[in-house]
Amino acid sequence: MTDKITNWTSADDAMVENAIRRGASRRELLKLLLAGGAAVAAGGVVLGRATQAVAATPVSGGTFKAAGWSSSTADTLDPAKASLSTDYVRCCSLYNRLTFLDKDGVTQMELAESFDSKDAKTWTVKLRKGVTFHDGKDLTADDVVFSMKRHLDPAVGSKVAKIAAQMTGFKAVDKSTVEITLADPNADLPTILALHHFMIVQNGTTDFSKGIGTGAFVLQTFEPGVRSVVTKNKNYWKSGKPYLDSFEFIAISDDSARVNALLSGDVNFAASINPRAMKLLESQQGFELSKTTAGNYTDLNIRLDMDPGKKADFVTGMKYLVNREQIIKSALRGLGEIGNDQPVSPANIFHNADLKPKAFDPDKAKFHFQKAGLIGQSIPVVASDAATSSIDMAVIIQAAGADIGMKLDVQRVPSDGYWDNYWLKAPIHFGNINPRPTPDILFSLLYASNAPWNESQYKSAKFDKLLVEARGSLDQAKRKEIYGQMQTMVSEEAGTIIPAYISNVDALSSKVKGLEANPLGGMMGYAMAEYLWLEA
Amino acid sequence: MKSGVLNLVVKRLGIAVITLLIVLFAVFFATSMLPGDTASILLGQAATPEAVAGLREAMHLNDPAILRFLRWLLGLLHGDLGTSYANQMPVAALIGRRLVNTMELAAITTLISVPLALTLGITAAMLRGSLYDRTVTVLSIGVISVPEFMVATLAVLLFAVYLKWLPALSSVNEAHSLTDLVRIYAMPVITLTFVISAQMIRMTRAAVIETLSTPYVEMALLKGASRSRMVLRHALPNALGPIVNAVALSLSYLVGGVIIVETIFNYPGIAKLMVDAVATRDLPLIQSCAMIFCLGYLLLITAADIVAIMSNPRLR
Amino acid sequence: MTMARTVATRRSFLGHSYNLVGVVAALVILAWTLVAIFAPYIIPHPIGDIVDDDYFGQMRQGLWLGSDYLGRDMLSRVLMGARYTVGISLAAVSIACFLGVVLGMLAAVTGGWFDTCLSRFLDAMNSIPSKLFGLVVVAAVGSSIPVLILTLAVIYTPGAYRFARALAVNINTMDFMTVARVRGESTAYLIGSEILPNIIRPVLADFGLRFVFIVLLLSGLSFLGLGLQPPLADWGALVRENIGGLPFAAPAVIVPSLAIASLTISVNLLIDNLPQKIRDRDA
Questions:
Q1: N or C: which terminus of chain C has fewer CB atoms within 10 Å of its end residue's CB?
Q2: SS3 call for A128
Q3: Model confidence pLDDT, tens digit, residues B135-156
Q4: Alpha helices in A422-505 (DSSP H)
Q5: CA distance, residue A190 to nearest chain C CA (Å)
Q6: Is C146 within 8 Å of chain A by CB?
Q7: What is the mean pLDDT of residues A221-235?
Q8: A65 φ, ψ to 5°?
Q9: Would an 8 Å CB–CB cutoff place C224 in contact with chain A?
Q10: Closest residue in A to B60 (Cα–Cα)
């Protein structure tokens, strides 16, 4: 089998689109691509989408039906409680954020017009004027203050309570200006507010089942665990948008069923398909694939404060034992980018491209395991379907271990309660981290000494100091240098092995236009609804 | 005899209620043994001890579980099924439409599978050892040996993707005509029929074979009765008890066991609701679903018991 | 010739009559049992090794049954899977049916409170969804193969009980039972010599069916983490993990399905065609 898409990133997308804009012909494009090292077979699927994205103009109208992969009675329209793609997509269609991340990872304004600060501690946010909620009320500073403050209330159970905790003061200076005061200087505030949980809701909302926001669509039906239907907001402040008349979102958890629903025409869009289904889609006419590598990863965590993680040789040995290429090839079917054991992915502007991952070296691994005296001992590794592809990765590592005499016992546990019982707790286990827009968020959540999700219990005073320093600095070059250094520290000293950043592939009917890759995740960072249109 | 039958039914119903209570307690006990609670599960990766404590407080989950369960039971007596922990909606609203959907699917499947299975089982028994019998046996065992998700996926691949005759998803809310309904229900019903028929066919066949070899049946044959008369009037009434039990057991699957069909065809029934409820440790929803499943099962076996007793004069 | 006796030609051997279908079925079961016992010695590749760059590979030299979704050898995995499918399922169904039938007969003969209480209790157990039950078992007792076998047995005992009891109750009302009771026979005699022989055939049919259910449920419970840990897999799990190969008619998903079907059909055909003593009162 030939891989049709290999090493194709959003940068390649941009390159192709630019070339087309400059008038490149198909032949010139192919030359460009082959020169650049991309392995493109017929090129039809990939190139086709790029040319169309540029050439077409949006058409109004149509009913769009998309299928996500997970839905339950815990589905919610409250942005603070949103916990997975299904919630994010619904919230993006109903509400807006102050800022958002565009396809290059650059922060752009949405409900806010500008962010000003002299010291990165006190921020003045000017709001866009003339924006109304679905029920006719105007957007004011009070709405923004309410939306922000509620994350700090434990009764709300906000998923970003920890991140929001750094915002200590909110003031509605006037009807369209908000002043936000932080506990410590943080230059990333505008980017942080692009997180889906910080969507702006109406002042005083307690019942979110009506989904009243400023967004592109108005709520028509919401059945948690079944489906949602939203219809075009005729008074949307982004004039001309949305193009679609209505948007229905359901979830089909079975991979094959989701793809089949797309193939049979029951839905126009199937999110996050299994890479093994790509072969099937490529052989059928009328479908396209959209690949995003946003920085989502599944990592193997070894607790440094428990046996056997306490032995540094064990951790080093494991880093040599993990065959990253094999994992990307077999477990991810080529849909991933090699990881270098630190969380900042290539999609992020602060990514340290000079840091090379440890190569697969079973001999070195064996040497270190022997030094640690662990050859032949049975070592449990906890994996679960809750952490994407972790069981497949575990099996690959286990087989490599068996070749050198290491007995790694894979323990598959139910997804039910995984995050509660095993994640962060078992001596060796898998985790799965969703993309975050800034290194500061990632390091604060995962690697600071007092981080709530310090998977390997990595503690370093030096690291903590660098973290605070980079956060408060408004000097981009300096921040890049510090973050580069911190990435190296995590890669070499922490116990989290990150073999790859997982790519996400969405499949869609060729009639759906306007989809672009986004660093916040698949489905255009979950905000696709207002950007898509259906070809007549 | 009428008062006898009435007595029977009343007694059975009384026993059913007791069984229901046992089940509710058992399910409660089982759920409380599972680690985690709604607050920590809803918070998921965002669960820090403070966050969990705060949310638990806000959701009134700090009362001991047994107290909350008893409160739910009390509410049940007033017809109130409680409020879901996961999304604060009334449980009755969550269950309402989905229960109707499940019942519709179950009813259609029953109407098709029971007559089919009984016919095949009885005729196979009558023609025991013949090619027909062998074929029925091999086919019915072969069909249930295929895992349910494979049958469903195969059906979707064949009818929806390649032939494009039927929709891949059973979106009941988009049914505007009888043809729509037939198309929407076709594959789920076929899949379920495959899954539950075999038990009914095999057990019917076995029970009928057994009664056909008893002396009084042979006596009837000697008296000159025809084959079908033999089966219908002499053998069947005595095989009825076991047959009806086999049918009841198979049909009970249709209430709470069709999770795979619901997942693959995106059919909004209550099996998936129960799975969600367990995953979020949503006590009121779990108990309400368990109660419905149990009631369904009890209804079926009570009917089976009554039919079995009525069919055997010596038991009345 | 009686109507119920249109049996296919039976031959005679050592005082028992048997027929071809039964023999073939028995041979298939024997073959899989042998495979189950000797699997570790005959598999060409270790079951965890990735031997193919491609996935869902076709049957070819060296990879006789193709490769699975990760690129592992299907032949090895299917041969090894026989151990779990044959072994665990047989053990579990034997326990379930033995318990169910004995209790069912006891309940039918004893009647009264014993019957009522036992029936209610087992009905209640049948109402608990098996997935919930599986999760609780994992949480409470941890996971291992004996636990898996017991869990499967417990889930299916109530059904076996109910069916056996229904059969036994019918027999119990017959005259010869009343006679035996009047004679003063013990319960054990009533069960063993009077009821059991009369219900054994339908009960065996139930056994065969329950075996199929357990083979399939086995994969569902392993998926929950109960019992079989990766890279070990039973046939049901092999079908489940390779279902993505169905659109390509990949051997990875077809072969385990055929293996399951061959085993379950053989078990049931064997039950239908058990060798019978020529002087058996029904022959």
A1: N
A2: coil
A3: 998 888 888 888 888 888 899 9
A4: 439-446, 461-472, 476-493
A5: 42
A6: no
A7: 92
A8: -125, 120
A9: yes
A10: A155
